[in-house]
Amino acid sequence: MLNAPLTELSAALAGGKVSSVELTQLFLDRIEKLDGELNAFITVDPARALGEARAADARRAAGESGPLLGIPVAHKDIFCTEGMTTTCGSKMLANFVAPYDAHVVEQFRRAGAVLLGKTNMDEFAMGSSNESSFFGPVRNPWRKSAVPGGSSGGSAAAVAARLAPAATGTDTGGSIRQPASLTGICGLKPTYGLVSRYGMIAFASSLDQGGPMGRSAADLATLLNAMTGFDARDSTSLERAKEDYARDLDAPLAGLRIGLPREYFGEGVDADVDARVREAIRWYESQGAKTVEITLPNTHLAVPVYYVLAPAEASSNLSRFDGVRYGHRAAEYSDLYDMYCKSRAEGFGAEVKRRILVGTYVLSHGYYDAYYLQAQKIRRLIARDFAAAFGQCDLVMGPVAPSTAFEAGAMSSDPVQMYLNDIFTIPTSLAGLPGMSIPCGFDSKGLPVGLQVIGNHFAEARMLNAAHQYQKATDWHLRVPAGTPL
Amino acid sequence: MALFSGPFRPLFAPPMSLDLEQIRRIARLARIAVSDEEAAATAGKLNSLLGLIEEMQAVDTSGIEPMSHAMDLVQRLREDKAVEPDRREAFQAIAPAVEDGLYLVPRVVE
Fold first, then answer.
1. Do B73 and A193 touch (CB under 8 A)?
2. What is the 3-state secondary structure (H, E, C) of A44-99?
3. What is the CA radius of gyration of chain A?
4. Which of B10, B56, B96 sits opposite A378 (nearest CB)?
5. ipTM value of the model?
6. Are strands A395-399 and A257-261 parallel, antiparallel or unpaired?
7. Do B32 and A344 touch (CB under 8 A)?
8. Which of A83, A110, A205, B76 has its CA 20 to 30 A from that of B26?
């Protein structure tokens, strides 16, 4: 059960082989046993989870069915959950209980999924290592001295250690794909606008996008079907007809054109990562796919552009945390200005403060054109690179990150080194394109390597098809870390 | 400066690094209290980041439209009608300080 695909769990529930209460208890027990060390969860409420499981069992007894009915799912602690704390990994929101559910949470609730718990994350989703959480770092189940990636590192570690069958994440510059890659699971960042941002605490609104994290591409398709959908409460939610992301899972690969960006291979990429990714691509060639070399010439500008735009948007979004309506308020202050300054100084951690300062600076009088406007213009150049590439290919493939999981603390003295770890995921985010990570092997230290699959806008079904076919022929996605045995 | 040659020339060339007084000024704008020790400790990391984004300045972007959103969306409009229910109590229940349905802050006007 712990390592079963969602379709199998759903069939077991439908066939009466297991109840949602039993399934939920199984995962709660595993969390109890293993999460003390991993720290993948910020909040677990067993009584509430079991209550939801009983309700799911009752819905099934009343004749309802569905692929997620009774399945336990963990939500990243950035999604608001009514009646349960939503901390965003921050002291600022350590006691925040949202008075409403995020759209994503509502969608899972409607589908009958059980809320297993809220997962740990980098504070306000700012980070690539899950070391900036107020609730302590998350450990990588494959090597506990290493980071799980971030910012959705808790969701990634939870799925990797099989503490949850599936989880949600959010991705602004790689926060689903990079932790998925570093923990050997699957994660998909959808086309910008497919998943509503309502109730998803904002970091950089023009980039933030929720998405599924799970064991396999087929599981991601099921989760994506539940997560997507138009929501009028998000002004950038796309008004599109619902689609079935699993519809093409079994389509043949022959004739698929795979673009290989020159900039994503070679210098700066670990030899093991490069080798595993190339092996996966050779497998696609053996199945009749054609590879074509493409160029994304502005790739090197993606990280600089991102570190202007994301902090600028963050400095604006995070101005709402002022100690007035919700969140942390300092105990002592002399006046209103002092209350703002002290509440924010106490509530935010170092990385968040740094990004707010950068964002405030690049938007300040006199520098707006040189930084913010220039970054927006280069963002268009990066989007055009992809538009040109998709004239020559159906999907783009390459590494997710230049390296496998790094040791905790290794990048904390120089954040820029950490930022450069996102060089292959940020361009996709800037262009609003869907991207995913699937496991494609291990490095010499036994740490997982992720293959990135990037599609044109709305190509999720095609990406999931390519990933699913690979997973029918390989078992990388079924491997479980030795440190968290089944 | 070579960095700003060509048709693209900002009105103010941004400084390559920030001194402590500039960091304190930005922190005041951002409403974040920083001690002198914190400002000094963060200066290196901030300037390392500014060095990273400096790379953008060499790019000629004349004639390129800024891209503010991934999908180049236009703002959707809705009818000017109240649709949300009144949940004042639920929202005020999570506030640090309220009285008689009002949010309390230190006195601003004497």
1. yes
2. CCHHHHHHHHHHHHHHHHCCCCCCCCCCEEEEECCECECCEECCCCCHHHCCCECC
3. 21
4. B56
5. 0.92
6. parallel
7. yes
8. A205
Min Cα distance A324 → chain B (Å) is 7
Minimal C-alpha gap between B100 and chain A (Å): 14
Instruction: Name the burial class of residue A293, with classes exposed (0-12), middle (13-18) and buried (19+) by CB atoms within 10 angstroms of its CB.
Output: exposed
> Domain for residue A35, yes or no?
yes
Reported pTM = 0.96
Q: Which residue has the tokens 């078992």?
A: A475
Domain span including residue A134: 6-249+460-478
Residues of A in contact with B42 (CB under 8 A): 350, 353-354, 357
Q: Is A360 domain-assigned?
A: no
Q: Is A175 a catalytic residue?
A: yes
- B67, B72, B98, B104: which to substitute to probe chain A, counting the most A Cβ within 10 Å? B67
Q: Bridge partners of A81?
A: A84
Decide if A151 is catalytic. yes
**Which of B34, B55, B106 is facing A345, going by the closest CB pair?**
B34
How is residue A164 written in tokens? Answer: 């949850």
What's A172's domain CATH number? 3.90.1300.10
Assigned fold of B10-60: Histone, subunit A (1.10.20)
| Chain B residues 74-103 with CB within 8 Å of chain A | 75-76, 78, 87, 90-91, 93-97, 103
User: Which among A76, A118, A189, A342 is annotated as catalytic?
Assistant: A76
Tens digits of pLDDT across chain A (486 residues): 899 999 999 999 999 999 999 999 999 999 999 999 999 999 999 999 999 999 999 999 999 999 999 999 999 999 999 999 999 999 999 999 999 999 999 999 999 999 999 999 999 999 999 999 999 999 999 999 999 999 999 999 999 999 999 999 999 999 999 999 999 999 999 999 999 999 999 999 999 999 999 999 999 999 999 999 999 999 999 999 999 999 999 999 999 999 999 999 988 899 999 999 999 999 999 999 999 999 999 999 999 999 999 999 999 999 999 999 999 999 999 999 999 999 999 999 999 999 999 999 999 988 899 999 999 999 999 999 999 999 999 999 999 999 999 999 998 778 888 888 999 999 999 999 999 999 999 999 999 999 999 999 999 999 999 999 999 999 999 999 999 999
Chosen from A91, A238, A361, A420 to mutate, greatest number of chain B CBs within 10 A = A361
Hey, are the CB atoms on A238 and B71 less than 8 Å from each other?
A: yes
Annotated domain spans of chain B: 10-60
Q: Is residue A151 part of a domain?
A: yes
Whether the ω angle into residue B17 lies within 30 degrees of 0, i.e. cis, is no
User: Would you say A117 and A49 are in contact if contact means Cβ atoms under 8 Å apart?
Assistant: yes
